[in-house]
Every structure is written in C-alpha cells, then in structure tokens.
C-alpha cells in the first residue's frame, strides 16, 4: 500500500489484512477496535491502539487486582489526589503537598544500561513535574544477577553511570535506594526509579484537555524515531527469542538529554506560576498517542491534532511513528488561546521549543490530520480505557516444596569464631557490602536540603527552611521473601520501608509501589502477583497508610524462568522538624562530661528463630526455603509511633532498623557509620539473636539521661525493649563470642564492590 | 553588601550559593546569563552545575553568555569573583584563571566529603581562614582533575596562586593535588569542591565552607 492510510481509505478497504499481531495486539483486541470504529483502523489508529493497549500503558492484566488499593484504602485526610493521576499527592501540612512515584525501566536498562537507566530517571521526573510539583529528589532501587557474573559487570556500571549522569545533570539529589543481587535477575535486572516533588496546595495541575477552543501545545524535545514500538513491543515481550532475529521486536532504547529536561523543569514551573496552563501531561511510554488520548478522555472529550505541526528530528516519520515515538523530554499542555503568546514567550526564555499542534473540541472524537486529511478519528476513551483481563492464576505446587525446605536443617556456626566468620561473610557479601562505589557517583548535596541520604535508613529532605518541615522516603523489596510467600513477603517489604522512614524520626503517611513480576500469561506468576497486591492492600490498611500510585512491570523473565516476584514498596513520611532527625551511626562522643557510655536498646517484637529467605541462609548456604519471617503490622505501627515520638523528644542519638542480616549486620553498620565500636551482651542463643530476621525490630541508642523517659514512652506505646549493650571502644564485641576491630569490619565492608566493578 | 549569583541554562547549585551568601550576612542577587548587567553587585559567584549540559566542553559555551561580556572586564578590574565547580570551569575557559579541568582519573563522577588545606588565606575569598588550615567540604564532579603545563604549575606555586589543595587523597588526579587557584591579583578564585554545601552541619558535612562567603563580605565591607 502506498500513500497515507487515511480514515477515508480505511472505510473503503474493509478487509485489508493488518499487522496487528506484530504490534502486540490479539485477534480479539483487533476485533474490538474494528467494532468500536465500525471499520478497520488506519495504520495510525492501529499504532495508537497497540501502544495504548499494551500491558505497560493499559494495566490490562493487573487492573482487576489493583482495584484493592482503593477499595481497602484506610481513611486518610492526607490524600489530595490518589491513584489514576500521574502520581498521588499527599498533604504534609503548612500548606505543602508532596507527590511521589516509583516506576520501572527494567527492559531498556538490560538492552542499553546507560541510556535505559538515564531515561528511567527522566521519565519519572516528568511524571512528578506534570502534577505541578518541583521535583526535589530521586532514589533508585536496583537489582542485578549474580555480582560476579560477566553480564552484571556490563549492566551494573552502565545503569549507575546512566542514573549518575542524568540525575546529576538535572540537579536532583539522589537520597537513597537499594542494591541487591540474585541469580533470578540475570537477564532481567530491575531498575526502579523514584522521584518526589513538592508544591503548595493550590499548585496541583490536572491532566485533562478541557474547554473547547483551548490550544494544545507540544513542547520540549523534537520527535524522532526513538523507542518506536517501545511501549507495546519492547516492554511487553520477553527476550527469550531475541536471537531469532525478529526485526519487529528489535529493541530500540530512547536516548536522554538531561540538560533539556532541566530547562523543561524550570520552564514548566514558570508556566505554572504564571497560570498559563489549564491542563498538562508528560510524554512517556506511547508518546503523543498516550498524551492526546488521555488528555482528551479526561477532559471535554474531543481534540483535533494536526500531526504535520509536530516538530520532527527525522522528516521521514509518518503518522504511526509520530504517535508511537518515545522521544524524551517532551510535555503537552492545554492553553487558553489568549495565553498562548505568553506561554511561548516563557518557552523561548528557557530555549525550549514549543508548537501549537491542535485544539480542544466538543465533538467527543479525537481527530488527527496529516497533510490535511484525517488519519485518526476515534472516541478517545476507547483507547484510554483499554481491555481488562481476568488472567487465570494458580498457586504452583512448587510452593510446598519450597516451604518444606526448612532452614532449621542448615548447619550453624558452632562457636564464637564461626559466628564471627558468618558476620564478616554477610558484611562483605555484595548485597550487604558498602555501596559507596555506587552512591559516590550520585550527587546527594545539590539543592542544599538533603538532611539524610544513603547509607542511612531513609532519605530525608528539608521542605521548609524556617519551620524545619521535611519528608522522609525509603524503598524496600525482598524477592527471596516474596518467592517463599508473595503475600507475606510484600507485607515485609512494606513493613521495612515503613520502619526505615520511622527510624529517621518521621511519621509514615503514604505508599507507592513498583510491582516487578514475570509473565502475566503464566498462571503461577499471576498468582504471585495477585497475592502480592492483596498483601500490600491489606498491609496498608493495617498500617493506616494509603497507596497513592504505582507501576506494574510484567514480562521480567527469560524463556519460562521468571524473576523472583519483587514488589518494591516506597513509603513517604513527614518530619515535623528535620533538626530532630535520627541517623544510624552510633555516636562517637558522649553528650556531656561525666556521662557513662550510651546504652543500646533493641526495641520491638521478640527475636524468633526466623531464617527462611534470610541473608544468612542465602550468603552462607545459597539456600532459599521455609517460611519468611512473620510480619507483625500491629507491632510495626507501635514501634514506628514510638520511634517518631522518641525522636521528637530528643531522646535518641541513633536508630537503625533490623532487616537483612539481622542484629549482627545492623550493629556493624551503625559502628561503621559512627566510627565507633560497641559491646553487646546477648540474652539468648547468640546465633538466633545475631542473624534472625524477625520483623518489627530496631536498635536505638539512648541519649544519656533520657533512659527513664524512653522507658516510659516505650511502655505507653506497648513496645518491649531489651538493653543489649553500650557504645564505645574500637571494636564490635559480642561478649563470650567474638570481637572484630572496626578497621577489619570496614575493610571487609568496603572492598567488595570496588573489587567487582573497578 | 550585595553578592550576585549567575544562573546559566543548566546551573544547578545557584540556589545553594544564594543561600550561602545569605547565611554569610550579605544580600543575594540573582543574575541571569542573558542579561548584560551585573546589577551593581559587590562580588559575583559562578555556581556549580552543567551549564549548557556540559556539551562541547565544560564551561566552553557559558563563556560566551552575554553576562560574561560584563563580568570579564569587571573581574580584570578587581571585582571579587568565585567560580565553584562548573563556575571554575567557566572561569578557566574565559581565561580569567589559568589551567583547565579534565575528566577525573577514575573516569567516574565522584561525590565525597574531603579534607582540604587552605594554602593561600590572602585572597578575596579565603581571608576568613588561616594559612594551612584544614577544612572538610564536599566534592562532586566528573571533570575535576586540574591540569596545566609545567611552567604554569611552577608559576602558580611560586606566586602563591594555589589556593586550596586536597589534604588527604587526591580524588581525581589533579596536578599537584590542586583543588582551587586564583588569579595574580587574588580577586578571582576557582574551586572544584563546593563550599556552599558546607555551610550548615544539618545539610552538609560541616560548616567549614562558610568562610569563603564571609571572607568576601569582610573584604568588601572593609
């Protein structure tokens, strides 16, 4: 077929075969499009529907489960905008609102690590910007295959340099995140990027094209062939058959320009401040197709777009490519006709290219023309809403085999020397080792409001310089726990992020999530997904923190081998006065002369022999089996309230949550962070006390003189506490077991990542 | 006492420099790259960041910004000027300071709190320190390795134009561990480390960096 495939031609050539399957659409989906339109789609319409109905954009397999987040949401007066917006918006008081979201860029980061990870940062930053907020910080949760695998040496440094170059050049501090390794991520690394932004209550922008006659403006970068088909093809198909040379599925990763994104951020904020925007949407996956259909569907309902007006960097692009292009650093705004000149002047000040490409109509149709002829004419909601699937799900029989492989049968260290060796092995293992090799490549200082950043439990950013109001953030996930039990594992991830935020002294307020799973077409994976979502929704209800938004990444698998189910949970908290923040480092110097050594307390739930999915079983035995630790959401809630109250009362000089590697790793990290040793007496079986990963626990150091006040507060909150030792000296000493000089701890902790990655 | 901070497209630490000026007791004045106007300020800071995306070469494009046509003659006439990180790179490109900044020896971006030694406490921006004093200030850069030909380096050492040196590790392979230099008159100073990120222990490793800003306040007030 030559020439443009116009609406008129489509109506006249009813039976023409079309490549819907190559674009990722099923025969049923294609039939639905034909039924909706009353004719075959044009090639531009086919492209539009294919990207809009991709798993990535439509959530067609996950929607029926994700509904629980709203249905089970606890009552919260903190929510200004919830799920369904580009990102949720949370009221943090004093007239400030915060928006935050985490999103995956897994597949592009495997294909081209640097650009894949870089554009992942760029995409999530535009999501936050589109809500009306100034982006103020980013975080990254990263998971790779075995640290020693040759492919990890290709992927990890590229991912880190991509995040570094994009985030640093954009001027956003990177305040934390995660780094873990597991063979299940070989071939499917997880690169999840979080961004948080701050605005005043009145600054919230809407993603809707309302008001017939209002102008539609595309601004930012030009449109090129980057990532064409990325949304439907790249993000939804496995790489298992990549070697077969299937050209239609050849990945095409977008290339980022952080300098332009920085200009776009400043430009948008000036446009908002001038009241020049009535609706705005960022361009991410599915580019112009997604922005136009979603803006139109959420607004008056109609839009006329002249595709010839889209500024191109490749003149050979036609309507389908223009619609599908995922060129980065683009935004679409709806502007009143009388304000267009002012709008364009602001863009010119920031040297951002802008073009009026259409207008809002009341026809109820999204119409796009090319060379004067209609090439798209659809009801926008038909593309924006998309199909909904109830995928079959089945608990795999292998779950029972896994659960039966009880870690209690694993050989344990016989004496103090054995415990010492186990602690050093954990501390030097890639997942628990010092992450400076990664985090030193990120700017954590820019903007001058970073109060806590990695390796602290949570990132903490000042919002108001006068009042000290701030926000804390942490992300956590644990694929091993979730593999053993996705329901409990997801609640453990939520619990840990919630506890991490509380450990800084903040009050947890809201939750975002990035759900990384294998293929939804596999009933076993779908079961994992359903369990994880149910676990998170129930957990959020119990903790009283609503889910404000999130992202689903399916098809993280190679052939039939899926990754561990890995929901990554981000928790946002508010800190009333960041001057009262609490860090993980043991205090090197006492507060006053004549004071005794500061006491270390273990607060929270009883320490049980819980080793299923533990770092100890993984590192020392390569073992994964049994049951994960039992979550205890009531205990988490009480512990978090105690930590926040103790921080507000200036009772603590350090706090550190217990998680991977248990008390042993937490003590070592607090010693290393503070540059001071400690002496600990364990009240029971040293192995269990040191390495158990029982939930709802934290260690704190009490300010000298505040012991009685903390004791009262702990009783009020119903949180048990055990005095386990004191801070001081230059070694980590466990009485009757071992002593490890700080220098030895530091060397073991620091050497791993540089030795692996140079 | 008014101190200007120039924002170029891609400047990032301009906000932090403005805050540091305020904490030092002076009035911060935002200056725009496209204006041929220094608004009568008493001193100027070129902040960190990635002006023009560091495309072509760090600082190479910013050097031609309209505001620079005002700044260069003013600096030559004695106006105190401090370039931090990208600002240092711009001052080198504009030939207000000798030498150049090149890729870090490890080829990776480095963010690290570093111990620095103040070698010259007589410049417009370092008089609040004493010679030989050690301070802790963050470094955050990918192209921070100071380079100059042997003759220039020898000249800088002989004339006391090495203002700041890395006191511990030389993190980026800078010649003679140089972290900052000044012009012959001592009014123009360039630094790779970021003193504006060490003005408050709440948000930085120390408050050791505040002295750069109080130095110029004291000088201009005197």
3D structure, described in words:
The complex is a heterodimer of chains A (758) and B (222). By secondary structure, chain A is an alpha+beta fold. Chain A contains 26 helices and 28 strands. Chain A has a 7-stranded mixed sheet with strand order 8-10-7-11-9-12-13. A 7-stranded mixed sheet of chain A has the order 23-25-22-26-24-27-28, sandwiched between helices. In chain A, strands 1-2-3-6-4-5 form a 6-stranded mixed sheet. The radius of gyration of chain A is 26 Å and the shape is globular. About 3% of the residues of chain A have low confidence. The mean pLDDT of chain B is 95. Chain B has 5 helices and 11 strands; from the N terminus they run βαββαβαββββαβββα. With 222 residues, chain B is of the alpha/beta class. Chain B has one domain: Class I glutamine amidotransferase (GATase) domain (Rossmann fold, 3-Layer(aba) Sandwich), CATH 3.40.50.880. Chains A and B meet through α8 and α10 of A and α1 and β6 of B.
Percentage of residues in strands of chain B? 25-35%
Overall 3D shape of chain B: globular
Give me the oligomer status: heterodimer
Kindly give the count of domains of chain B: 1
**Runs of chain B with pLDDT <50, length 5+?**
none
Let me know the number of strands of chain A: 28
CA radius of gyration of chain A is 26 Å
Strand order of the largest sheet of chain A: 8-10-7-11-9-12-13
Number of helices of chain B: 5
Structural class of chain A: alpha+beta
First CA to last CA of chain A: what distance?
54 Å
Architecture (CATH level 2) name of chain B? 3-Layer(aba) Sandwich
CATH topology assignment of chain B: Rossmann fold
Structural class of chain B: alpha/beta
Number of helices of chain A: 26
